[in-house]
Amino acid sequence: MKVLAAMSGGVDSAVAAARAVEAGHEVVGVHLALSRMPGTLRTGSRGCCTIEDSMDAQRAANMIGIPYYVWDFSERFKLDVVDDFIAEYAAGRTPNPCMRCNEKIKFAALLEKALDLGFDAVCTGHYADIRVDDDGNRELHRASAWAKDQSYVLGVLTAEQLEHAMFPLGDTPSKALVREEAARRGFTVASKPDSHDICFIPDGDTKGWLAEHVGSKDGEILDREGNVVGSHEGAHAYTVGQRRGLNLGVPAPDGRPRFVLEVKPRTNEVVVGPKEALAIAEIAGHRFSWAGLAPRHPESEFACEVQIRAHADPVAAIGVVRDDEHGQPEFTVRPETPLDGVAPGQTAVVYVGTRVLGQFTIDRTVSAVPVGA
Question: Would you put residue 37 in left (φ > 0), alpha (ψ -120 to 50) or beta?
């Protein structure tokens, strides 16, 4: 096959590209330039897609012996990831930009261009596994190394995208083995730290970045009954489950700490309450997709597991897709054990065993503790 290897400049994508070559594929490496003004050097393990990362990717490609290119996707990245991130926070939701990047950039814009140029697949260094069922349909599964499993951030992939995806690291038992392999191959990135945080906020100051791009406006902090208990300098700076940094002038009647339960951007209000109120008995969303074949009867309740964060534990649940009161299809999940601190805008990825069944962006939540309880 003719394979386009997305090379971030990290150890995982370098080893993935090398394995694709050894599997007999015709491989071309490409680094995505996602910022018009990238930082010259990374700071520790923050961020990615810098000039240094591009150079690391090129060195790895040279050692593997494959052609290497840099493609400018900065315009698309700004529109589909950065602007979406700003809009979601302005609407009081908590987005996951890595999900949007995988959905809109790596497996939409990049894959579209790859197919136009005659490539058969896009190869990445994600830790996930693609399996084929008895009828020849491709399915997305967890990687063998659950500690490093990245199937959650790939939950947005569709059946068509899975047809052209390749994850050579999916069956590797540990990241340590990948680093050892990179060292044996002589890759300079063998000991390079993993990137974390949001790549377009490399200094990690998300609150300050949002204040600059969304703006700040003083508002009120309310309890669940609607009483004013404090003030804030911008609702965007708060997220569901937050405890620290609350400017509360009125203590709780029981003297216990209070947590952010809801952010209301239209009224610029933040709602707080007891920790127990963070327990969520139901989540639902209209923006959903299936990773491969959809269930034959999604309108009938089915057993599944739901995961609401990249490193969260999956929780047994019941899922169903039904029309809401406005006649719009809505994916609803009721966990057997209440979920903790779920915020609208987060992505819920639904599994059946190790298989990723699909995902949805959470639009609404139902607390397990009613107001006044």
Answer: beta
Task: Consult the annotation and say whether 222 binds a ligand.
Answer: no
What domain range includes position 226? 216-273
Residues 222 and 333 both lie in one domain:
no
pLDDT of residue 196: 65
324 and 234 inside one domain: no
| 101 counts as catalytic | yes
* Averaged pLDDT, 153-180: 94
48 counts as catalytic: no
pLDDT tens, position by position, 131-157: 999 899 999 999 987 778 999 999 999
**CATH number of the CATH domain containing 283:** 2.40.30.10
The catalytic residue among 48, 49, 98, 101 is 101
Do residues 317 and 301 make contact, with C-beta atoms less than 8 angstroms apart?
Answer: no
Instruction: Verify that 105 and 230 share a domain, yes or no.
Output: no
pTM for this model (two decimals): 0.89
Residue 28: strand, helix, or coil: strand
pLDDT at 51 over 70: yes
